[in-house]
User: Fold these one by one.
Assistant:
Number 1:
Amino acid sequence: MRTKKRTAVCLIAGVALLAVSATAAFGSITGYSQYKESVITLALEEENFSGLGHFSLTLDDQPQMDVAFTYHQDGPDRSSHFTGTEFGRPVDTWDVMIDGVSTWFSLDSDYYYHQGETEDPPNTFLTIDTDDEYEARILNFMNVAADTVVGDLKNNFVQLGTRDGLTYYQVDISQEQIPTLVTAGLSLLAVSQGINEEFAGAFTQDLALENIHCIFSIDREGRLADTQVEVSFLGTDDQGVVHPMVIAGDLTVSDYGTAVVRPADVGDRVLYQ
């Protein structure tokens, strides 16, 4: 259950990030660099922040996922809470790591779970050791790939204005403008058995982006403040039937430098042995 949930969450997060990367074609090199650096800093460098968000997925106009989440990080300590529905199942889970010890439980369970102390837990959301040649090359590849995907999309970018110290941007991309590299990658993803199991065989033949709508903002310090993304797909199964799918998500990032991770409140649950 926990593994499947994470697979679905990672898929949606990855698609949303790819969509934003592909559509964040600022009208100037400085603007694009600022956006890219804000994402990299949040994921790989920022050690203290909170996130509040929501994501949903519909397939054939039927809701499949509708989940809200909160996330807090303070160095190696972190906590997350997911609540909503996922593929017809209720979701209400907590996962807290403090001092390298992970505690997690579901609201409807009589038990909670412990994972032994983790040696040197990371201080950031993601960890890439830039002193490690292999990992440094991965980061460099991601940078180059993002720059390549941006291509000529800058004409779709619109600056909406500024408000309360935030600068807002919007971009809309149609199917015809989506880079071939992105489409090819999604088609490869479509035939992945591990992913397709999550979506009842809807994408056994093809998966194509139809359009992308994205709004996001950056604060005065160049940090990502919030983003809303909606991505529409068309998938084809092995019978040739086309299945529309829409992924939507929003994320608000706050408490930079002041986030607090609190111990898990397991209530009267007992430790699972």
Note: Residues 1-9, 22-31 have pLDDT under 50 and may be disordered.
Number 2:
Amino acid sequence: MAKAKIKVKINEKALQRAVHDAVDQRRADLQRALDRAHRSTAGASVDEVKAKLSRELKAATGERPDSKIVDGWARVIASGTRVKLEIKD
């Protein structure tokens, strides 16, 4: 049986833009979750912040967040500091 050859041409600029847009959307979703947790729990105990932050991140992403990341961010929020996500190119 002969194999069919398929030629695919990818518009790399369009692909890069789509990836950039997807990453930026995820960052915005995470930032909103972090801000909600900060507004409602800044200055609270780390455990209270972790619980709220875990719920917010799961709601924003549909995934269970990494506990080490949540722990670090919760400590920052518990101290009263806002976590700001930035994407570096």
Note: The radius of gyration is 19 Å.
